[in-house]
Every structure is written in C-alpha cells, then in structure tokens.
Automatic annotation (TrEMBL):
The keyword Repressor does not apply. It comes from the Bacteria. It comes from Colwellia psychrerythraea (strain 34H / ATCC BAA-681). This is TPR domain/sulfotransferase domain protein. Keywords: TPR repeat, Transferase.
Length: 527
C-alpha cells in the first residue's frame, strides 16, 4: 500500500465515522483510481450506500470487496447483515455461518464484527445465536452503548428479562439520552411507586425536540403512569407524543381506504384461481390487527411438535412487490393490487417457501405471524392454496386502544394509522370488512378466532384451532409459557405466562377518551 493510499484510506474512514459521506466518497474514488484492487475502498463505499438505505448497492460492493480479500470476517458479517435487512434470510444465514467459523479461529476478535454478526442473526429471528455474539462483543468492548442495547433486545426476545434489564441500564448509564433504551427498559415492567423513572423521563420529554425520540419517551411515560394507574397522565403523554409525530407525517387515512377498496374490488370482481399455486401445506399464517392476540395464537400452534415458529416475516409482501414490479413507495397499494394479475402465483408460492428456509424445514409445518398479512390473504391462497390462515377477532375497543397505546416500528408506513385514535378506529373498520370478505370467499382456508373466547376457554378453542390446521391435538399446545421459542413482538412478556384473560376490557381504563371511537363504531354498525 502506497503512503498516498494509506493517507486517503485513513481520511475516508474518519470522514465516514463523522457522517461526511461526500468527502469519504471522494477519498475512496481517489484510492480506486490508483488501485482498483483495493478491497476496503469497495467495502467503505458499501457502508456509504448502506447509510443511504441502498441495500442492493451495498451488497454488490461488499461482495466485490470480499472477492478481492476473501475470508474477511468483517466483510462476511456485513454481507450477512445486509442480506438479512433485505429479508433474504437464506443468503444471510449462509454468510453469517461463514463469518462465525472464521471468527472462531481468530485469537483477537473485533467487538464491532461480533456485534454486526449478532445483528444479522437477530434480523433473521435467530436470537439465541445473536445473544452469543452480542455477549462476546460487550466482553471485548464494554464502552459502546449500542452493543449493550442490541444485547438487551435479543435477551428480551429469548425471555431473559433480567439480563435485558441489566443491558438496557448499562446502555443508559453510558448514554443517558439513548431514548430507545428508556422505552425498552420501561417495557420490561416492574414499575411501582417505589421503583419508576418518571422524574427522569419527564425531564427527557421536555428537552427532546425530535419526534421519534419524543415517541419513545412518551410511550415510556405512558407505561409507567399506567402501572401507577394514573391513566389521565398516561393518555396525555401518549397523545402529545403521537400528535407531535403526526405533524411530520403526510399520512392520510384515504390512502388506506383506497387500498382496502382495491382489494375488495379485485377479489369480488376479478377472476382468480386457487388451483395454479405451489402445492404445499407447510405454511400456517396468523393474521389480524396488531395487538389482537396474534402472538398468543402463534404460541399455541408452535407448541405442537410438528410446527416451527418463523416469527413475523415480511417475505410474502416483499415478494409480491418484487414480482409486480410496481415503483410506488409503499409495499402494497392499489397499483400493486392491480398489477398482481400478471404474477405467476406458483412461482410466488415456491419463492416464499424457499425464502423461509433459514428457520423452517426442520418440522412439517411453520407459522408466519405477520399480522398485516391479512392484506394478502387472497394472494397467499392463490400462491399457496393449501395454506391455513387464522385471523384474530378481538373486542373492537380493546383492539383500537391497544393499537393506539403501542409504539410500532417508527417510520414504517404500515402503522401510520396508529398515531391518532380516530384513524385507528377507521383502520379497524376497514380491517373488519376485509376479514369478513376473506371468510366468505375462503371458508376452508380462513379461520376467524375470537380472542375473548380463546382466553376464557383456552382448551376447547385451541382444540378447534389445531383441528383447523389439520394437526393432531397435543395437550401441551395450551402451555404457551413453556414455549421457549423467541418472541420478537410487543407480547414478549405476556406470552411467557400461562394463558389468562387479564387483557380483556383494558379499554375501560381510557373510557373517558373514547366517545369519538364509540360513536364511529356505533355509526358503522347502524349503517
């Protein structure tokens, strides 16, 4: 390496670390003009592409770097991570395993590479493996709050709540303004009059001016005030934080109304066939409104010895988007629905099944628990005509309030409706109409299960559920607290306990704020 290239390389790294992407890019291009085989220049260009959310370009550049400098654990770990972020879990797992083998042979290991590999496994839903690498990362470098936050998240998902609590506290001790860590810590519960973070959280809420940060702190405050049964203050912080975020969004419920209308029209008026799909009964889908009991049902089914939980997969929707070749910025919209007429549904079904193989294939059946796959039911059954789809039906007030109370993935347009009680109500009504359409069109494949009946009579309801899935009854199916599979949803704590009805009628805590919701629901029923 020439002295000039060495200096340019150092300057590029420094610029990249400071977020000076244009400057870093210029340095890296200068390097490649002098030496087109300099592997790390391609790798650092990949990190610039990644910072700008261009995952495909990042993958291409990392592969180029890896071809010039094979067996680099950092390159392979980043390749695994980026494939995982693209939901290509099969390729992600392949490169993650390669990286893991190489890392195991090293005398000196990199905390950054270990953390990256942990993130890759976490993105694939393989949280037990992720924890292994996150723990090694923090053992080498205990001064990086991001590493501890990542460790805390995966510990929570595998049910190690005390370990997660310690990791989040460590994060906050190093970075008091790490807002996501405050929200995550509060989400572990254990709040009381004697143990809470309300004074600190209220100070943070006043000082933060960023909408996403305020969402995290607002939701944390709401949870803590709920635990203290001060529901007026809980609602105040929820509403204030959500309104602040909503002002930044260009969300309009009419977009969702157009989508739901296009789905209804497509399947009411168009000719479609369930005989042209990929013939396998492997997939079981659990769908519905978020926070309606989908995780509970997934736990019941995946307790069966013939079933594996694949978690919440975005694979099906992304494959539909890819195959329709629509260029709109939403994964599913009216344009994409119309374009499905040109899809090869057998190829779609086969591609979906193959895309799950990082986790599935070890048992005869698997569960995909992405709630808003309810939008894709008609397409799922065209692609996989033997699939079984279970849809949750929960008390509308509990569903609406629970969605409003939830901090979903920030900036994911799927959940924009949940920033306002009224739009949450309207979205629920759209969902309800769509679920009724699916039930009418696909009674042999689509099963509506009532959440309240399930938690009040779990054995009888679970038996009917298991029978619908064409599985034999096993007594342990209702012992969801013994299900050791990771849970990467907001229900991670609840489903570690036996089935109970403690969440029934939770809406009553916020009854004072629901007049508009009740009016909308009553009007819809009347019409």
């Amino acid at each position: 390496m020439s002295s000039t290239i060495k200096v340019l390389h150092q300057q590029a790294q420094q610029a990249l670390n400071q977020g000076l992407y244009q400057q870093a890019h210029q340095h890296l291009i200068s390097i490649l003009q002098q030496d087109k085989y300099f592997a790390d220049a391609y790798f650092l260009l990949a990190m610039i592409a990644s910072a700008h959310h261009n995952l495909a370009k990042a993958i291409e550049l990392i592969k180029q770097a890896n071809s010039l400098a094979p067996n680099n654990p950092e390159y392979l770990s980043q390749l695994a991570k980026h494939y995982a972020l693209e939901n290509n879990h099969v390729e992600a797992l392949y490169f993650a395993e390669l990286a893991a083998k190489l890392i195991a042979q090293l005398t000196v290991q990199s905390s950054l590479t270990l953390d990256t590999l942990g993130v890759a496994y976490s993105q694939m839903g393989l949280h037990e493996k992720a924890v292994k690498f996150f723990k090694k990362s923090v053992a080498i470098n205990d001064r990086n709050p991001n590493y501890f936050f990542n460790l805390g998240a995966s510990l929570k998902f595998i049910g190690d709540f005390e370990g997660a609590r310690k990791a989040y506290k460590k994060t906050i001790s190093m970075a008091p303004n790490y807002y996501k860590a405050h929200s995550a810590l509060t989400g572990l519960g254990g709040i009381s009059e004697d143990y809470n973070h309300i004074p600190l959280l209220e100070r943070l809420f006043k000082q933060t001016q960023h909408a996403d940060d305020r969402l995290h702190i607002g939701h944390a405050l709401a949870r803590e005030y709920e635990a203290l049964e001060d529901f007026d203050k809980a609602f105040y912080y929820l509403e204030t934080a959500k309104k602040f975020k909503l002002e930044q969004l260009k969300y309009n419920i009419d977009e969702d109304k157009t989508l739901f209308k296009s789905l209804a029209s497509h399947f009411k008026d168009s000719k479609y066939s369930l005989s042209q799909g990929f013939e396998t009964d492997e997939a079981i889908f659990v769908v519905g409104m978020p926070r309606s009991g989908t995780t509970l049902v997934e736990r019941i089914i995946s307790q069966h010895t013939d079933v594996t939980s694949a978690g919440e997969l975005q694979h099906f929707g992304l494959l539909v988007k890819k195959m329709t070749k629509t260029t709109s910025n939403r994964v599913i919209d009216a344009e994409t629905v119309t374009a499905t007429k040109d899809i090869n549904f057998k190829a779609l079904g086969k591609a979906y099944i193959e895309s799950t193989r990082a986790i599935t294939g070890k048992t005869a059946r698997f569960v995909d628990k992405m709630p808003l796959n309810v939008l894709y039911v008609g397409f799922i059954l065209q692609a996989l005509p033997k699939a079984k789809i279970i849809c949750l039906d929960r008390n509308p007030l509990d569903t609406i309030v629970s969605n409003f109370r939830q901090l979903f993935s920030v900036n994911q347009s799927y959940y924009s409706y949940a920033y306002d009680l009224q739009t949450t109500t309207e979205f629920y009504l759209l969902f309800k109409q769509l679920a009724e359409l699916w039930l009418a069109l696909f009674p042999d494949n689509f099963y509506l299960i009532n959440y309240e009946k399930l938690v009040n009579d779990p054995i009888n309801e679970a038996k009917q559920l298991i029978e619908f899935c064409d599985l034999s009854w096993q007594e342990q199916c209702v012992d969801i607290h013994q299900n050791s599979a990771p849970v990467a949803t907001a229900s991670a704590l609840q489903v570690r306990s036996p089935i109970n009805n403690r969440s029934v009628d939770n809406w009553k805590k916020y009854d004072a704020y629901l007049d508009g919701v009740k009016k909308s629901l009553a009007t819809k029923v009347d019409t």
